[in-house]
Design a protein that fits this description.
Distance between the termini: 41 Å
Number of helices: 12
CATH architecture of the largest domain: Alpha-Beta Complex
Bound molecules: guanosine-5'-monophosphate, manganese (II) ion
Strand content: 15-25%
Oligomer: single chain
Radius of gyration: 20 Å
Number of strands: 13
Number of domains: 2
Length: 349
């Protein structure tokens, strides 16, 4: 087994290495691939990339998303075949009950799949994990790989295909899906995790004919006017900067969401804007969704948002990018954030 430095040792005991299934890939199986709720480009790209690989190997594969997703992801090859668990629950349950393998991609704890979580917990089939978030819930997976050093789950799916001896199976559909996730999760190749292996992978995808400009345009130049107007409004009226704490907070009410007809995916990337202000170390975004107040945190440098999200907002994620939630009102959760920011004053200097 390869040495994965960020995998906790207990993971190796409780979860068999993903490499052990390589030899089993040759026999056709009934496979489900799922990911976290409101899938982002990495979640969607890794799921569809793996889908296009496994169908070539003769498996019967279904991708089930726990919830809906941004319409600007519908260009991905195979997106039209994904089942939305909230809309097609009965059909999905039948397929899940019949599955031999369920791949869980780009999340590592069942609660990230919302209404699908209890179903995943009940399944008796083989559950496999491919993920790069911190603190995996490894007892729930039979096989897997958890590597927080990896840029994206898409990079890990690429490694999975290549290490299992199937590099020649990487076709244009797979390349487009995987490139989208790597591009998004590395902030278009700017974050530290965009190391040499990422660039080697992209070079390989380019050699196979990938048109990367098409992917960038599909993801970043594919919104409606109202989304840009909404961002302008939010940056002008909804952003507070706390220079003493090198922190900026954006809070969005239900009224704002309604006024600008904000849809799933329209707020993606918004949390990154305050980080472009000189000196800002922590950016936070809270959105007043129907069922919860959803938090996003981003940091630059040595502020650990994973710890912060876990400690104060029932969340987690990566060191520099995490999310969380609160069931309190918008005003109350903002007050809690301000208290938490002050408690972390020394770490934010
Ligand atoms: P985002 O702010 O884009 O929703 O999430 C940032 C990162 O944190 C993503 O990698 C996402 O998967 C992860 N994340 C978001 N919300 C949660 C949460 O509630 N729990 C955990 N463990 N991770 C989260
Ligand atoms: Mn990811």
């Amino acid at each position: 087994m390869a040495n994965y430095p960020n995998t906790p040792t207990f993971a190796a005991i409780l979860m068999k290495p993903i490499q052990e299934i390589f030899s089993l890939l040759e026999q056709p199986r009934k496979v489900v691939i799922t990911t976290h709720q409101k899938p982002d480009p990495d979640a969607m790209g890794s799921s569809l990339g793996l889908y296009h690989f496994l169908i070539q190997k003769g498996h019967q594969v279904t991708v089930i998303s726990p919830t809906n997703w941004a319409s600007w992801l519908n260009w991905m090859p195979g997106a039209d075949r994904i089942l939305d668990y909230e809309l097609q629950r009965d059909k999905s349950d039948v397929i899940l009950d019949d599955a031999d393998w369920v791949f869980c991609l780009d999340f590592n704890i069942f609660s990230r799949t919302k209404n699908l979580a209890s179903k995943l917990q009940q399944l008796t089939c083989t559950r496999l994990l491919i993920d790069h978030h911190q603190q995996p819930d490894t007892p729930n997976f039979d096989y897997g790989i958890s590597n927080t050093a990896k840029s994206s789950t898409c990079e890990m799916v690429y490694d999975f295909i290549v290490e299992s001896g199937n590099r020649e199976r990487v076709n244009n559909e797979i390349a487009e899906c995987l490139y989208a996730g790597v591009m998004a999760d590395t902030g278009s190749f700017r974050f530290p995790a965009a190391g040499a292996s990422v660039h080697r992978m992209v070079a390989d995808l380019k050699d196979k004919g990938l048109r990367h400009t098409k992917v960038h345009e599909n993801i970043y130049d594919n919104f409606l006017e109202n989304r840009l107007r909404f961002i302008g409004h939010v940056l002008m009226h909804r952003m507070e900067v706390y220079y003493e704490y090198n922190t900026a907070l954006i809070a969005i009410s239900k009224k704002d969401l309604l006024r600008y007809q904000v849809k799933t995916g329209d707020t993606e990337g918004l949390v990154n804007y305050p980080l472009s202000i000189q000196g800002i170390k922590l950016a936070a975004l809270v959105i007043d969704r129907d069922e919860e107040r959803k938090w996003s945190f981003r940091s630059k440098g040595d502020f650990d948002t994973n710890n912060f999200a876990r400690k104060y907002f029932q969340g987690g994620g990566h060191y520099n990018a995490s999310g969380g939630r609160s069931s309190d009102s918008l005003d109350k959760t903002i007050q809690q954030f301000i208290i938490a920011m002050k408690e972390n004053a020394s770490l934010l200097q």
